[in-house]
Amino acid sequence: MHDDVAIPLIEKLSQFKVRALALSVLWLVFFVVCQFGLDLLRPDPAEVVRTGVWVQGTVEKVEPSSKSGRKKITLAYFDGSKPRTIAVGMRGARGLEVGDKVSLVYEPGNPAKLLALDGEVVGDSDDVLLTPLSFSAFLGFPVCLYAAYLWRSRYRSASKTGLREATATVRPGWLYPRIDVYLEHDYKLLQTRRSLRIAPRFEGLEKVPVFIGGEETDMIVIFPRGRFSKDTLYTVPVKEIEPDTA
Fold this sequence. Notes:
Distance between the termini: 31 Å
Low-confidence stretches: none
Order of helices and strands: HHEEEEEEHEEEEEE
Helix content: 25-40%
Radius of gyration: 29 Å
Number of strands: 12
Strand content: 35-45%
Number of helices: 3
Shape: elongated
Strand order of the largest sheet: 3-2-1-4-5-6
């Protein structure tokens, strides 16, 4: 394979590393933003106590909650002369038992919305959206950082071996199928690596022309059809495995 073709293809692997690093930075920024968002949405206990309506309530029921470490507390209290009951989820429930008397604070003009129980703010509306997003960002940062490391290794490996012309057949598989690669005087069985760049889109193509490069777990297969354009080459990370009889 001519160097004027191989070098630009190999250099593109370095671009994948840069993209993964950029995504890791974006995930980190997103995580920080989510943390600030949680702080902004979390009500100030002092403000809740100052503006809310105070009443005395009674614990009617204490049950385990579907959320780990939390309990469902059913409380009875009066809105003026009108009796009300409400169920709230609390972490640990602070040893509350049926019959205990507690101080409640509800929203002015909305007795059904409990704001605080014995001075502790209740409700987890801020967790509904931002907490899962924050957790996703927390996981996305190291994953993208690791992806950048892997693309750096593939770049070095492909730079060492260069690219070779071959033909490939992608076996049936959902996300990470195996690929039969036929070189001029050799055969390799490759396993698609975990990556956003996957090979199932090429399933059913028999011995399609490809380029391969790298060694062992740091190999790549470059297919002649891109994600969005047939005129764009598409790189899939793979590793070599022992041939089977399938």
